[in-house]
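Appendix B. Extra example for self-study. Work through it before the problem class; the solution is given directly after the inputs so you can check yourself.
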Amino acid sequence: MIIFIEKDDRKVSKRFAGTVASLLSSLDINPETVLVSRNGEIVTEDVVLKDSDDIKILSVVSGG
Amino acid sequence: MKCRLCDEKAVLSSPNYCKKHFIEYFERKVFRTIEDYGLLDPSDSVCVAASGGKDSTVALYLSFKYLQSFRSDPKVTALIIDEGISGYRNKTLDDLKRFCKDAGIPLKVVSFRQEFGRTLDQIITLRLTDQKPCTVCGILRRYLLNKYSRGFDKLVTGHNLDDESQAILMNLFRQQTDILARLGPVSGVSRDALFVQRVKPLYFCPEKEVALYAVLKGFDVSFTECPYVVFAYRADVRDFLNAYEQAHKGAKLNIVRSFLKVLPELKASYSGKGLRYCESCGEPSSQRVCNACKLADKIIIARDGG
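Solution. Structure tokens for the complete assembly:
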């Protein structure tokens, strides 16, 4: 699975199958702070991902 | 997970709505906030403090859309303060220029360099002041926003539920009740001819919902963080609050709702107290010389080698 983490502008490649929630947990990312898209579509935390999916994690936090 | 109103897939877990119903829900919430708190009047001429980021772009779009439901030619202008933050503001400024051009909304650009002779990057890099970047930026931005929005009836800002709950906690932690009294859907404690009323249509919208709305509407906005955010006290409170919200859903909204119950008394206790005019620039200030003038003096002295 290719995971693009927009905040850090980096791509992570890892084998993963499971829910969005468990993926975020494995990356130590708080779901409250991001939107996740799978193959270009926004998905909720209960959605089960396949290893062949393209994932984008978009940070929603801002402010200074 | 399915939408609570139809068989489409949800785009948000809580509340679970599909794209179409989320957009309707979000707009309804913003328009209800505008009406419940009297934030905008159909006849208002409105200035929107814009940055090209998601929050202010959504506030700009929905303020325009709300007023457009009453009149075909809403009096809305976007105002951006270009602080001069390399690799950040130039990108969001380009995004905003495109957005305003497409929407037919006039845009005014004011810069730190033009007003104070230095960009924020220069002020920080050259150590023209020992204050933190966000403090410097906040003082100068607020000064310019008030100055250049004068003549409009309202100044709309993109502050959302996360911003407000963070601000409430930060000021409680620091025992700054005078600053706390200035918060709320309508900012400030005193009405003054030189103060443009600041209003927050996204007051009850979590940051995640604002971002989702911007993405679903296809707005070309940047989600990058200001590079100076790492120096901000707010970042600590933000991260703490997001962790707490994840464990205890509804915490941010409960902070804001509780705050709103005591806010009228808080505003009344500070109303009219200590407001005077800066001896240097004539702007409203709680001090003899306002913070912006004190800071501008330091910048000019350092620049000129004084």
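Self-check: Chain B touches chain A at residues 1, 9-13, 16, 19, 53-55, 133-134, 137, 162-163, 166, 207-208, 210-212, 215-216, 223-226, 228-229, 231-232, 234-235, 238, 242-243, 245-246 (CB under 8 Å). If your reasoning did not lead you there, revisit section 3.
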